[in-house]
Write the structure tokens for this entry.
Amino acid sequence: MNPSNVSDVEIDPLLDAELTEVSVIMTRELIVAGPEQPIAELRDLFSRVEFHHIPVVIDQKLVGIVSDYDTAKCLGEAGIEVDGSTARGIMSTELVTADATTSIECAAILLLENDISCLPIIDDDELLVGLVTWKDLLRYFVYHAR
């Protein structure tokens, strides 16, 4: 089919120049933890899912991030926890964040320049609204970017 004008062309919304904000690619339905969540529970959760980061929140406000790597570091040689017993003891608290209107390109730069693998997305009240990972960005650039 040869479209006769632009309105006849079906455009992938991810290719629309106005939709290059992280809100288009971020994960909105998140599993979160509280600061007092036991590390054993987090490690068990990571063993059952395909993601590698869990935001730590208090009343939806982001206070940290725990990764599967963080939980693995807490195991001694016998597989017994040796460092901290809750998310609070192992979570990263110096966070790089963005808002939903941040460009996808800027999000990629933030991950690269800060050597991080996920970018929490917060609103004006600093409440967690989503998460963008390096895989989300790679998927966008491979399948949708021009």
Observations:
- The longest helix spans residues 104-114.
